Structure formats: C-alpha cells, structure tokens
Amino acid sequence: MSTEKVVKFAQELLLEDDPQTISPALISERIDEFLVSFPRYRDSYDRSTAIAELVRRFSVWIGSDKTIQSDVGHVAWLDSDRKNDWRYWRRYSEMLEGRMSWTAVDALDKSTDTILGLLEDPRRGGPWDRRGLVVGHVQSGKTGSYTGLICKAADAGYKIIIVLAGLHNNLRSQTQMRLDEGFLGYETHPVAADTRAIGVGLIDKDPAIRPNYVTNRTDKGDFNATRAASLGISPEQRPWLFVVKKNKTVLNRLLRWIHDHVADAQEKETGRKIVTHLPLLLIDDEADHASVDTGEQLYDDDGIPDEEHQPTAINSAVRRILHAFTRSAYVGYTATPFANIFIHEQNETKLEGPDLFPSSFIVNLAAPSSYVGPAQVFGLLSPEGRTTGLPLYREVDDHASEDGKSGWMPHSHKNGHYPGEMPQSLQEAIDSFFLTIATRKLRGQGDDHASMLVHVTRFTSVQKAVHGQVEEYVKALKQRLTRRVGHEKSEAQMRRLWETDFIPTSAIAREDFPIFGDIPDLPEFSEVLEVLPDVIADTDVRMINGTAKDALDYADQGGKGLKVIAIGGDKLSRGLTLEGLCTSYFLRTSKMYDTLMQMGRWFGYRPGYIDLCRLYTTKELTEWFGHIADASEELREEFDLMAASGSTPREFGLKVQSHPVLMVTSRLKMRSAKSLMLSFSGQVVETISLFSDRDTLQRNYEAARRLVARLGAGEDDPVRERGLSGQTWKGRLWENVTSDEVIAFLTDYRTHPDAYKVNSRLLAEFVTAMNGNGELIDWTVAIVGGGQGQADEIVPGLNVDMLVRRSNQTGRYAIGRLLSPRDEALDLSEPAWNAALAATRDAWQADAARLKSREAPSQPSGPAIRRIRGEGGQGVAGNPKRALLLLYLLDPAEARSDMAGLPPVVAFGISFPASKSGVKVEYKVNNVAWNLEYGGAD
To answer: Residues 725-734: what's their mean pLDDT?
Structure first.
C-alpha cells in the first residue's frame, strides 16, 4: 500500500513536467520531493518498484476512439456544467489514478463522456429509447469502461442500472465484485449488516450518495424476488444496481418484479404495465453472446439442450425489460466486430419492442500502448507473411497421435476418457509457470496474482482426471525441491528451460518490442532456484466449475496474491478474468469457436512481466486465431472509413451482414442457416491457401496462361505517379478488359477449399450478377512480377520473375498476404490515388492494439482505394464498372523443399470497387464435414 501511495502522489507531481523530459532520474527526484513532506512512507515502500511503475505509466500512449452514430430523435445534452457535482465518477477516477497512468484515466474520462452523451439526458421527459454498442479489444478493459459509464450515468440521474453479466455464476459474481469496488463502494452480502467499505467507498464515505443494491457477490447472489418484493423504489432515492446472469428464469423474474413493483402506468392500447418515472440504463456485457436471437441452442456437457440458456428466450426477456420503461438506454459491450448482433436483426414486436440492433451508435475503443492483443502475439498479415509477434507462443504436438485419434487427449475424445501419461509439453508449461512466478517475486511482484490456465477438454470427468495429474506433478516437484531428494533432474530441467527459453525470449522482447519498455532484467538462475520451493508451495491447483467461488478467491487474499493453476473447460465462461494470467495451455476441444474465445482471455495487460508469459497451443489453433484477428482488423478498417464519412449504424450493419468475413466466421460459429448472402463490393479477395499437387497447379497455370495469351500485348513494366515520386511495377498490364475474360479465368481456376474467403466459382457468379446491374464490366488486369524467384516465360516474350513466398506447413501451400495496398492502387490515376490517401488519413487513428504506427499513413489503405474507385471523392468521379484483377506467379522451388520441380503456383487477387447496388450471391456453408470434425459451436 505504501508503494501505491508513493506512486500516486509522485505521479501528480510529474504531471506538472514536460512529458518529453520524464526519465527515471526525474521520477526519482519527484519521489524524494514527496517523501520530504511524507517521511512516514520512506521505510515502507519499494523504490525500484515505484520507479518502474512510473516509467511504465508515463510511456503509455492511447489512440482515439471512433464513432458511428445516428442522431434521429436525440437531443444533445452533456456539457461541462452538468459534470460539476459528479461524485460517483470523481471517486472512481481517483481510485483509478492510484492504479493507472493519468493518460489512461483521462482517456477513459473522454471515452465515457462520448458514450454517455450519445444516450439521452435522464432528466428529459419520455418516451425515448437509445441503443448502442461499444466494441473493445479482447480483455482490454471493457469492464473498466462500463463501470465508468455507470458512475457517470448515476451522477447524471439514471435510477435503475441493470448489468447482464454472462451465463454462469462465476462471471456474474466477478462482475458484481468489480462494481462493488468501482461503483457501490462496499462489499455486497445477503445480509446488509455484513457489508464493509471497499474501493471507492474508502475515498468518499458519505452515506448520502451510497447506491442501493439488490444482487450480491455470493454464489446465490443473483436477483431474488423474495428480497426484491420488499423493496420500494421511488425517483427520489439513490440509484439501484442489479447484476444478473443471462438466464431465462432470472430475467423473467426481474421482468415480473418490474411490472409488479416498479411500474407506475399502463399502456392504453395494450394494457401493458410500464415505468414512466424512472430512467433505465441496461449494460449488456459480451453482447454478442446469448443476448441475440440467433436461433442457436446451448447444450450441456452431455449434449442435452438447456432450455434455460435458449438465446431466443434471453433475447425476448432483455427486450421486454427495455420495453417496460418509457425512458431506456441499452449499451452492449463486445470484443467481436463481426458480432452476430449485426447479422441477425429481428423485427419490432408489440410484446418485445425493437430488436437489440445498436441503431443509435457504435463506438470503437482504442487500446493503450501497454495492451497485449492478437496483433502483438500473432502479428498481422503482410506481404512478407505475418508481422513478427512477441515470441511467446510454444507449439504443442505431443498430446495426441498424428491422426488425432489416440494419445493423452485425442481430438474427439468422449466423456469418461481417461488420459494416459501427462505429455512433456504440459510438464514444461507448468515448469515455465513456476519460473515465471519466481521471477516476478524477484522483480517485486510477489504479492500480485499469478494464474495458469489449462484448457484441454470440455468434459468435467476428464477435467477431474487432468486435475489429478497436474496436482500429482506439482506435489512431486514440491517434495523433490523442498526435501532436496531426487531433485537433480528437476533442477536440470528447470535450468535448461531457463537458459534455452527464458533468457533469449526476454532479450528479444526487450530489443524488438521497445513499446513494452518496462521489462526489467532477468535475475540469476541461482536466485530463482532459491525461491522456487516457496513459490510451488504457495500454488493451488483448482478446477473452475462455474460457481462464484472461482471469482471470490482473488478478492479474499488479503493483499497476498493468489497463485493458481486453473483446470477448466466450457464452464470457464466468456469474460471471466483470470487475474495475472501468465501461462496458458490450450488444446482444440470439440467446440472450436469457444476454444478460440477462451484463448482470447490470454490477452490484456502484463506490466513488467510480458517477457515471462507463455501460450502453449497447437499450430491449428494459432492459425485459426490468426484468421479471426485478420477478420477483426478488416472490419475495423471498414469501420474507420465509414466513421470518417459520417455513416450510420444501420449502414455499417448492412455492410457487415453481407461481408465476406462471414465465410471465415460461419465455419467456426455454426448458425441454423446453411447459406449466407454475400456481397464482395468494396472488398479485396486474395488466394493465400493454395494447392501443392502437380495436377491442380498445372490446371491453374494453364488458366492463367490462356488468359494472358488472349489479352495479348499490353503495357509492360507500368509506371504511375504517386505523390512526389513514381512507382514502377514489373510485369504487364491490360486495361479495358471485358468481364467475360475475367469470368472465364475464374471458371477455369480452382481455389483451395481452405481458402474460406476466396471461392472462384462464387466470385464468377458475383461478377455475372453485377454485370446484370451494369457494374464490373470494365477490368484492369495485371500480371505482377519483380520477385526474387526464377523467371517464367508464361507466354512467348513475357518473362515473369516469380515471387518467393515460403511456407513450412505440410499439405496445402499457405502464405501470408499476397496483395499490398501499393498493388491494389495500380489502376488508380494520380488524382484518385491522392483522394484515396486523403480518405485514409481522415479515417486513420493510432491504435497500439492494431500495431498502427503513431505516424500518419503515407500510402492509401485498401478500403479507401476501393471506396474511391467505386464512389469517388475529392473531385474524382467514381466508377463501379471498374475492377482490378492481379495475377502472381509464386516460385514452387522456393516455397517448400517438396514442391521443387512443380509448375509455378498461380495466385490471384481481386480488388472490387465500392458499390451501392446491393447485389449479393448465395454462399452455401458446408457444415456437415465440419461438424463431424469439430462439433457445432455454442
């Protein structure tokens, strides 16, 4: 606590300094200044930890949020005068300043102001109804955002605040505890006399502003009608907080109570009971999960449908609760830009009212530079493959036999499976976790929480067996190191892991990722070895079974961090935060989408120990997470462009409903629909999953050769003016090519079935359909060379230097990005290129979570290129008749050793212009084989 106080007050002194001059030396001076006035802290704080924390805080930068909104029926109301006497927010921000940088708190203040301002003034007469969505990055602090929003909403005059928190007790309880600390200011228990002040309640203790609660933090603390029936609510009272599960019974119980005890009027037309005197704020955490009427069905561990968790029932109950208030605001929070809240719109009904579509606004939150997300771990696609990520991923391949049918944890194991001997990779992961805790202790983080997650099966019986194995391994390790009997092998194993893994990884993290500049030096292994026995003795091995107890333990440690290895499965509900998560061990479970979402909890903030974190998982899962990360980035880019051009949520929703990204996500998250209606307008498609067999490669090569031969002479090595210089391409370009030529090529070419977003037959159908609308009839075609591979004479007189794209994957030939924005702009005139660059800069935002540079872009982005080509901008006319087909030859000899001697690999990309025509084509989702292999997702 002393160190926290020193950090908090030294931070306030440093705010007076020029940010460019803040250094460890200046921080040290400001700490000394504080200690002159408060000498009692001099002997009880850790100076090096305080300096390291302040260095971290003052090196953090945060990008700007982006918003798409509709002001229909909205009256602007929030200004600085209104905020003068806001005590809930003031005490929450003061609490945060002790834990976060001032920059982060200031960014949260601005962000929550934006969101609150998009809602209605709670003092405004009704009726009014605002519905919005906040899209954050995975594990990036969404709870902190909606806690801040709740504080400000209560300050402004919202009286009923309902938070929908997950499907299981553990997440509901964890959310309740976070709001106890950040909003209520006291611990909630069934008996009011048991409460004690915590968090914000220690800052402003005035009972006059103490909010009321109905739900509490215990396992059975969800909404209880018996207690609620005795509560009388009136507008003069302080705000009421309800934290409830997304459960049909609970929500219907809450709805009945609202009708019976809160409603003060009846609707004349229907006789429906309504609330006119109290404004409602409803926060929907993980809004893409269970709240939306997708027609999906949840199943229990034995495959039995669970009526309680029927999404249609939950969707209906949420809408009826909102509909019961004449003045209501709904704010969904999610980390999934392609959330099915966009995909499945429901019509308005008399009983439920409007659907949950965010018709009022969508806010895209930026993350601070200290955030570690998919882009930092896996990188993002680029023409050179994936950009380098932090070197924290370790491949697991010893958990099952090569065909996946036998071994410790086979892919399709059943309930009751008993795993054999624990694999070496899991033993290494556990050893790695202990080395991490020991190092963190030596770095001054010994009192912080530290968690390891083992997620290898969805069956409780199998989890129990794994729990037994892990517990036995930890127990044996503890005995050997503590008693110094038979310890030599274990110590040698630990030393080897330290020297071959920890030392080089920490060095790379410090050198190549200066954005995480708070990484201290590693201690000597002898120091680590000395504290290992105590670290292991303090570690518990637990099963996570979905009860509130899972979350409670973190809060009940009394200042001493919990050290835990958590064995979990599907009951590790989405959104449950495992505090101080350092090491994760993931295998593919039968429900792959859920597994990927579980992997998402690995992301977040790891101050001072990011170099020690490890993610042990299969190559397959990292590849799929890469697909999801790329899909997210694609939609965020689209969002930025639409925000800059003043689009509405409806327009963005319509765009997403037919976005080709769904060709990826629909394979992962099975829906009841067996086909999707897709549009490729304004999109780019590229072949990055390719065949590696001779016959198919020859077929595709012949398709390209015939096209090039038919087109004949063209512009060789084209040059285009770009800004202050010219850009040159090696190869040949043809203009004014008819769509028939492109359709013929697409019909002849065979795309790989794993190329989820590129299906040549579907693309040919789309071009044909657009031709019927008078669009996509005039093509630019180019074959792009200039690679480092061998030259290939595809037709007499045209030699193409093949590109080098290496792949270490057996089977299909998988590469990173094929196109670059530079290539995509090949058909643009200089004015059009300049207009696309201007549009890119207008939409640009620095966002550390997306590996965006803090420098404004110097090249136009793909979405801007396609927008300008089709719709025009800044004095440039658009032409949706024009599109671009790019052909590439990849050198098979440089691709993989077993591909030498094969025909050149033909890859292609198509850049479609933006269009308002609305033409779509049907994409049939082949779910049968997928379901047999992976199972459907929840």
So the answer is: 92
